[in-house]
UniProtKB/TrEMBL annotation:
Residues covered by the RCK C-terminal domain: 284-368
Organism this protein belongs to: Odoribacter laneus YIT 12061
Domain of life: Bacteria
Family, per entry: Belongs to the AAE transporter (TC 2.A.81) family.
Transmembrane segments: 12-31, 38-57, 69-88, 100-119, 165-185, 378-398, 404-423, 444-462, 474-496
A GO term from the CC aspect: plasma membrane
Gene Ontology MF, one: monoatomic cation transmembrane transporter activity
Topology of the protein relative to the lipid bilayer: Multi-pass membrane protein
Keyword field: Cell membrane, Membrane, Transmembrane, Transmembrane helix, Transport
Entry protein name: AspT/YidE/YbjL antiporter duplication domain-containing protein
GO BP annotations, alphabetical order: potassium ion transport
Amino acid sequence: MEWVNNLLFGTGIGHSILLIAVVIFVGIFLGKIKIAGISLGITWILFVGIILSHFGLRMDSHALHFLKEFGLILFVYSIGLQVGPGFFSSFKKGGITLNLLATGVVFLGVIITCGIHFITGIPITTMVGILSGAVTNTPGLGAAQQAYYDMTGIELPSIAMGYAVAYPLGVIGIILAIVLIRYIFRISFEKENRSAQEAADERASRATHVSLVVRNPALFGKKISEVASLIDKKFVISRILHEEKGLKIAKSGTYLEEGDKLFVIAATQDINTIVAFIGERIPMHRAEWEKLDTNLVSRRILITRGEVNGKTLGQLHLRGGFGINITRVNRSGLDLVAHPGLQLQIGDRVTVVGTETDVAGVEKVLGNSLRRLREPNLVPLFLGIALGIILGSIPFAFPGIPQPVKLGLAGGPLIVAILISRFGPHYKLVTYTTMSANLMLREIGIALFLACVGLDAGEGFVETVVNQGGFSWIGYGFIITFLPLMIIGIIARWVYKVNYFTLMGLIAGSMTDPPALAYSNATSGNDMPSVGYATVYPLTMFLRVLTAQALVLSFV
């Protein structure tokens, strides 16, 4: 039975993979357990790794280091691919305020961490671990460990210990802050829903439709292309109904006459301006337009051909070549106005109006192959990882910091993933990844990372907590969690009048905490917390990774 002993307690590759698999399996199983509707989720993997390591189950140090770093790279790169398309747009309009508030949460946490370090004398490496656990940010933990290893060549377990001790109360502290702000301001969910709806109506940028009749004498006898150039709004005239000529597909060369009825698609906030410019609304619904000419069909076509990726609608010349109209483009659930300058991406769904034959021709040009879309696209994954590692290895010298700063194996791939997913289509690079594939990569990465961190930190964990002041770390972690959230939460509500549902997402997103987001969504009964979370998440994740490294490099 020697083989059994080697498999369970040896140092070979088989033993290492088995141990990792057991840790991840047990951790995920325990993560499904909820107490008062709250679960620590996959963080249980970390605690299972610590427990098994405490009882003597270890793995080869080289294999452990490789799997930990590879898991971290997969995790942060998948996050970057997910948030990249919306990263820069998150700074527009109200997003600037939300991101500034989230930045305040991040830096208040850093200031409090430094203060506790100077007052108590706890090593900054341990405090960074406590900070990462208190804000439930695993990439920050990985970045701190990587920065310390690059500086010293030594794996430091105390970083992971601080993280593991502070994490559980960190999750509770975030939810507690959300609840307390509600009671401090005596928030009524009904009022918040009403004000949110009013604000959404004012800001809506989604494509919508309207039927109107031409009454402006200045437009009589002008081509549709000329009309579009006269008003600084993006809109599409889909169909036109002449009194004598009947229903036609609106083309750029089509002339407008008095009394023509138009079916127009535009952004919601632009509708009133367009109506006032062209004429007046008429009570004619989409179904009535479709009944007028049975020869015309409206169909959604999926863009799956790589040749179309990154091209604008104007470059494809679909209207002139096929005699059809593209009225809107659906991207990630959002309907966009199909103006000529709109760049198309793999995975977009375009709404095409025309005859059956013409629509079929457009379908061949755009692809519309779901099978092709589901095929794995590994080029941007490994190209991005390679570029991310190169970027993460470049040293940057800053005054006052003794060691050059590197983005590391966490920051480099994260930045490259954001840039590739946002700008890749501009350079004909297909960056589309199905949500399921992205989620699989992300979960595998974080599971590997947490398992390895737990196994590495288990030795001496109990001794540290019981005999070396580890219990006080829990209190320090709670302060780091709770105080910044309450300060910024009160400012956001009192000064900036942020809607409470959005504020819930802001709080969860500033801590990059999925359990808090799940609680917020369940409590609010709408998707506004998710919107707030997604708005601040990319920048917050970026700052968490960089500040964790900066603290280690500045004080070690």
